[in-house]
Automatic annotation (TrEMBL), chains A, B:
Residues 38-330 form the Aminotransferase class V domain. This is Selenocysteine lyase. It comes from Armadillidium nasatum. GO terms for cellular component: cytosol. Its EC number is 4.4.1.16. Signal peptide: none annotated. It comes from the Eukaryota. The gene is SCLY. Catalyzes the decomposition of L-selenocysteine to L-alanine and elemental selenium.
Length: 442, 442
């Protein structure tokens, strides 16, 4: 069995977009039914039953056009505004700060675009001609989601100089890299691959001081964005703590539907926003297009569930993640490393170049999401992780396992056995612990 | 009773966005329950029961991330591709020419953006420096949807000269207005307010000749787009007849969900397309963002229903529309005019300035959608229609009524009585025909 087949079989996120499910990829060691092996909750979650019910009801009841001045329109509009309250409430925002969007990708693109446009307009408005040739500068990390990374790389109207920071010196490195032309800092709240979390609240505190000075100097007020896609639903997220200007919300990462929302601080009078799409003027003109009411109503429900139960979800996920990591350690002993937790023990420092690097050293420690584990195996090269604070040696041998609200102990035991069998087959003979040591302890 | 209350009450589309449902807006002459009075199917339709069921099943079954290389991802991807086939099949396209999008607004914005970007890239690529200062030019009509109108008016990266054509001399006026710098012609297939239809196929034939000459002259090949939002589901729409480069599809106008699709002729090797949103590279990189699978699966179902039943839908709608117009004529006699059908009989030619104008003259006649009637009353001024081939006198006195698959004869009779009572109350005394003449004939 190829390691690649293992990855496919055990439903591991592996970011190898060119690999398709091959028809001859069979595996006979099934312990639970195949579709029970889902350890990819960071890619997407199923919808909560309550959310499905809400969407289903809404498809029947709220089909009117919220812009229409009649009873069907009014029903839809009320439902939409209730959903907006639920989204806002989850993150301690107010409803008028919430913009409904097609998803996280649109939200992230919109923030980048808005910051750049706002900076350009600011430059033009300055009487001081020394600003006139200033190109916008954006600070971000090397580990952002593609919907931040690619607009910055490719998009012709997000023309900006970009500083990509490694994760090891956050948050101070953010402040150290500010330039007079900096217009936006965008740092995710939690990384999708390793689960490590960044202290955006800390960045906000430091930035607040910087912005005070900049105001006195007549410089552009730097905007702060965080993509909270992976954090929401796993840990409490509160904009009054984070003090960001923008925060991205993605429904399908927390048992909601495939739509998103963007928090914009004091939208209208606060953080600037420029529409990417023009048309009927929906969402106060910031996002035209007849609203996908049933999906937004479903998003509202998913947010309400999170607000009510996030600590319970979080606690369950953490328990499962801890058990998963313990079982993996039992099964693979020294042949496995939990990334961003275990010390790096690559003998050749060249191979582990991210500081603090070298043999036997401990990697920087970040808090982690309760549901995510990134593990490196010492055997096969698996091209997965890059720039995530994991040395290239380990990055090439890593997989991600993310648990969800439904994950159970038997599932974890089954998947650990499954991974072990697959690896044994791929790379016989291995000196792994005997199988008796992998069973039945919590 | 205010005329405005009538508009709200009878669920007429009236494009007065600043008017809210007032709490003291009461009406006692209810014949059918209020929510039965729905004559606004051009604003949005309810979802077909089969579509609701499909979405509901899909929310449970296809929640996986279509980009994930595992069983849940694969199930979602298959469902998505089946839906793409259904959308393509409805308009005689091939699946690879269909791009799933959040809605018609995104589709229309994307076309405008792509044409402009493509033209700019073409200009840069020309060795002949005489092209280098050429600004893109777009030809459209005065009656396009806001999602065409406003991007052209407001959007800073759709920088183009625009020619807005009146509808009276289409399609020849399109060709007459072509310039060397013309990059796009966008003309809707059917107008949302009056229901009049434009011969896009005719424009395509004429344009094909023009493009042959332009090719010989080394000029940019002009692209052709049609927004088919209002036509699909009411009449057969076939891209092999229309021969357009782009065609906009909007689910919620034909009993589908609030998402859309864009037909792009030979996408990848044919009509150019440039992404507005970057990220995970979904939709072959043309539209990033995890796909809203259940909604697209629902769109596919709505398209399959249309493909199977469009002639039946069309025939029913037309029957209802004919009956509605007959009942209105009985109720209002000479005090009503069916726009784009009846001759204009304003005595002062100044008041009816769109050619052919003047007293007693017949307006140009276009084919109309089977479901839409735009009627003008001679009494109150209702600020509704502009530029739609209706003189300003009539435009100010017009309302739109659009019927749907469920519209019945009793509903029509009820709404006609309702409108008549409301107008009588608003403008007593009127010399309307007696109520006996409005009842019971098909």
């Amino acid at each position: 069995m190829q390691f690649i087949d293992l990855l496919i079989y055990v439903s591991i996120y592996c970011k190898m977009n060119d690999i398709k499910l091959s028809s001859n990829s069979t595996h006979s060691s099934t312990i639970l039914p195949v579709n029970k092996f889902y350890f990819d909750y960071n890619a997407t979650t199923p919808l909560a039953p309550e959310v499905i019910q809400t969407i289903n009801d809404s498809l029947k009841e709220h089909w009117g056009n919220p812009s229409s001045n009649h009873i069907e329109g009014s029903k839809a509009k009320k439902a939409l505004e209730k959903a907006r309250e639920e989204v806002a409430s989850m993150i301690s925002a107010i409803p008028s700060e919430i913009l409904f969007l097609s998803g996280g990708t649109e939200a992230n693109n919109l923030v980048l675009y808005s910051a750049v446009v706002h900076f350009k307009k600011w430059v033009i408005s300055q009487p001081d001609s020394s600003f006139s040739h200033m190109k916008p500068h954006i600070i971000t990390t090397k580990v952002e989601h593609d919907s931040i990374k690619y607009p910055l790389l490719r998009r012709y109207f997000v023309e900006a100089d970009v500083t990509y920071l490694g994760v090891e010196n956050l948050p101070t490195s953010v402040i150290d890299n500010i330039r007079p032309s900096t217009c936006l800092i965008t740092v995710m709240l939690a990384n999708n691959e390793t689960g490590i979390m960044f202290s955006v609240a800390h960045i906000a505190r430091l930035l607040s001081e910087v912005n005070k000075k900049r105001e006195a100097e007549g410089l552009f007020k730097i905007l702060l964005h965080t993509d909270a896609a992976q954090a929401i639903g796993k840990l409490p997220v509160d904009v009054t703590d984070l003090k960001v200007d923008y925060l991205t919300i993605v429904g399908h990462k927390f048992y909601g539907p495939r739509v998103g929302a963007l928090y914009v601080k004091k939208l209208g009078s606060g953080a600037p926003l420029y529409p990417l799409l023009y048309g009927g003027g929906q969402e106060r003109g910031y996002r035209s297009g007849t609203e996908n009411t049933p999906m937004y109503v479903g998003l509202g429900k998913a947010c309400a569930l999170v607000q009510e139960n996030v600590l319970e979800y979080s606690s369950h996920m953490k328990k499962m993640r801890v058990y998963l990591e313990r079982q993996l350690k039992k099964a693979f002993a020294n042949y496995i490393k939990i990334n961003c937790v275990d010390p790096c023990n690559v003998s050749n420092p060249e191979e582990c170049s991210i500081p603090p690097s070298g043999p036997k050293q401990t990697h920087f420690i970040f808090p982690r999401l309760p549901n995510t584990t990134s593990v490196s195996f010492y055997y096969p090269e698996v091209p997965v992780l890059e720039n995530s604070g994991v040395c290239s040696f380990h990055a090439k041998r890593s997989i991600r396992l993310s648990v969800g609200r439904e994950t159970t102990v038997p599932e974890i035991e089954a998947i650990v056995i499954d991974i072990k069998q697959a690896i044994s087959k791929a790379l016989d003979p291995l000196k792994l612990p005997t199988s008796s040591s992998t069973s039945n302890s919590t």
